[in-house]
Write a structure and sequence with these properties.
heterodimer, A: mainly alpha, 78% helix, B: 9 helices
């Protein structure tokens, strides 16, 4: 009963955040220089000029800009619940269609990167934490270095080394499995460094806890102590951060897709920013916000699953 | 974090010990600052000197980072680009911190409804990743240097605001604040003389970390061709123009990127050192 109420509150909070986010993007669209119709006409004709009311009128009518603002706002926010993100300024078709097919490769990339990052993090944590000064130092230095690598640089370096110099992977891999390896690694390595730093601190602390000593005196092997006791405690903060990480990964994906020329929302987004197609940009931003919010909701629920103390509360 | 002693003297009391891990980043940051203020000290070359007989040369002793498609010395361009890159980093961090301090202190000091509203605003802001929020702003206002600074600044503000708020709430609970109140000092005096300086102290380190992060974000935007445009030697713009040559003259892309990475790492490591020192001082 309590658990279902807790979930309900969380879901309501998530919906609030999304509606607020949509409001932000709606009102942000009003901040374009001149008017929205001016931006559309300028983009269509490839110049920057003032247009007469007679020229703006048909555009205003077509996009519904002449309606009262509150009606446009309610229509926009209401549209989200119907799966409508507005109309592209440049392509004259629903934003959902523009994004549509591009969403899948981006999601594949992000989810694969998150999983890879976790595998790397767990491997590094289990193999290097509290394994003597030198091994531990190598582990933590590696994490500190990789955590701050910008994706655009790491991507280029991996591309140059493993696709241009040593021809293991294709330079332009599209969405093929082989072509996905380097983009996934580009996203996963810095994230693994970040998650690793968090997990390492926790793991070190847990290994000094009395219950670990108790487990050891019971004759439990070092490997079992690490796997059974320490890991379970030390991954909690990193799980919480995974929800946030998904948001960061999508940002990274935008850049990585542009480095590797991989289809996805990254290319669509950069194109839309270049052509001042604000509804498409807003649409992508909202989709990403939705992914972030849902992911965090799932993390909250997953947290309860890993930490039994939270289930009772 | 219940600190009783009131640290006196602030930054001046921080003892600096000489360590390699501190010196190397310090030297790198110093070089960047010199490059930003007076690039002529570090190179006698002209960053815009075109030499069509020496285009796309690989790194060598005369051109440590090679030359670009117009035969310009890449190292010279990196040195001259420092001013704009550092300027963007400082500008964006300054903006982000101003917003963060305003929101953070308002939420932390007023609490109640104000805190609730600000916390909700921050929660919504967190749903927008920095890069995407920046791209939305650029789509609306068009790419320019100002947009880039504002975009990165606004994008990274929520994170700092949350930290400032936490810091204010943290310091409020400290025993010395309570003691100052009990001694009969007015709320304003306690806030101004004790709460504000103590809550601000960790921000010094955060600002340092923020500059590094902002440079990385801003270069990312320029890399996508949505920030400062290529004729400029801004580091992100160098990346943007180097993209064409990734498969043939990789150094044009990798080297400016390496500079950004080294600078970001140095600034981050200095920020961390500062953070540890300041935390030590507060204890």
């Amino acid at each position: 009963m309590r658990a279902s109420r807790r979930i309900l509150v969380k879901v309501a909070g998530a919906i609030f955040v999304l509606v607020a986010a949509a409001s932000v993007t709606f009102f942000a669209q009003l901040l374009v220089p001149g008017s929205r119709a001016t931006v559309i006409l300028n983009q269509q004709n490839g110049r920057a000029q003032q247009w007469t009311p007679a020229q703006l009128a048909p555009v205003n009518r077509e996009f519904g800009f002449s309606r009262p603002l509150i009606v446009q706002y309610l229509d926009y926010v209401g549209g989200l619940f119907r799966g409508d993100l507005g109309t592209s300024y440049t392509q004259y078709r629903p934003v959902t269609q523009v994004i549509g097919a591009e969403l899948t490769p981006s999601l594949v990339l992000t989810v694969a990167a998150l999983i890879t990052a976790w595998v790397l993090t767990l491997a590094m944590t289990l193999l290097t934490v509290k394994r003597g000064r030198i091994v531990s130092a190598i582990g933590s230095t590696w994490e500190a270095l990789t955590a701050s690598l910008p994706t655009y640089w790491l991507g280029v370096v991996l591309l140059v080394v493993f696709a241009v110099e040593i021809r293991i992977f294709p330079v332009i891999g599209g969405t093929s499995p082989l072509g996905t390896v380097l983009p996934v690694l580009t996203l996963a390595i810095p994230l693994a460094g970040f998650l690793g730093q968090v997990t390492r601190d926790e793991f070190e602390e847990v290994l000094d806890q009395p219950f670990v000593t108790t487990a050891r005196t019971r004759g439990m092997s070092d490997t079992r102590v690490r796997l059974v006791h320490a890991l379970r405690h030390s991954v909690l903060p990193a799980i919480t951060l995974s929800g946030w990480a998904l948001g960061a990964l999508v940002s990274g994906a935008v850049i990585v897709e542009n480095v590797f020329g991989r289809p996805g929302i990254g290319q669509v987004l950069v194109n839309a920013v270049n052509t001042r197609d604000v509804p498409t940009v807003s649409g992508i931003v909202l989709v990403v916000a939705a992914v972030y919010v849902v992911a965090n909701l799932l993390v909250d629920l997953a947290y309860a699953a890993v930490d039994p103390r939270l289930r009772a509360a | 974090m219940s600190s009783v002693a009131i640290p006196r003297g602030g930054l001046t009391s921080v003892r600096i010990r000489v360590r390699l891990g501190t010196v190397v980043p310090l030297v790198i940051v110093l070089l960047v600052v010199i490059a930003a203020i007076a690039p002529g000290i570090l190179t006698h070359r002209n960053p815009d000197a075109i030499n069509l007989e020496q285009t796309l040369l690989p790194p060598s002793f005369s051109h440590l980072l090679g030359t670009d498609d117009a035969g310009r010395d890449q190292l010279t361009r990196v040195i001259y680009g420092a001013r704009e890159s550092l300027g963007i980093g400082l500008g964006a961090t300054g903006l982000a911190m101003s917003i963060a301090i305003l929101l953070g202190f308002a939420a932390g000091l007023a609490r109640g409804v104000v805190d609730l509203v600000i916390s909700r605003i921050l929660e919504v802001a967190f749903a927008f990743p920095v890069l995407l929020l920046a791209l939305l702003l650029i789509a609306i206002r068009g790419p320019s240097l100002t947009t880039e600074i504002v975009a990165v600044g606004i994008g990274s503000a929520p994170g700092y605001a949350r930290m400032v708020r936490g810091q204010v709430l943290n310091v409020r609970q400290a025993a010395y604040i309570e003691a100052a109140g009990a001694l009969g000092h007015s709320r304003w005096a306690v806030t101004r003389r004790h709460l504000f300086p103590n809550a601000m102290r960790p921000l010094v380190a955060m600002i340092t970390l923020g500059v590094g992060q902002s440079i990385v974000w801003a270069s990312g935007l320029s890399f996508l061709g949505l920030g400062v445009a290529p004729p400029s030697p801004e580091w992100g713009a160098l990346l943007d123009s180097g993209r064409l040559y990734v498969t043939t003259q990789w150094w044009l892309e990798v080297m400016p990127g390496l500079v950004i990475v080294l600078v970001a790492l140095s600034v981050t490591s200095l920020g961390r050192t500062l953070q540890h020192r300041l935390e030590g001082a507060a204890r």
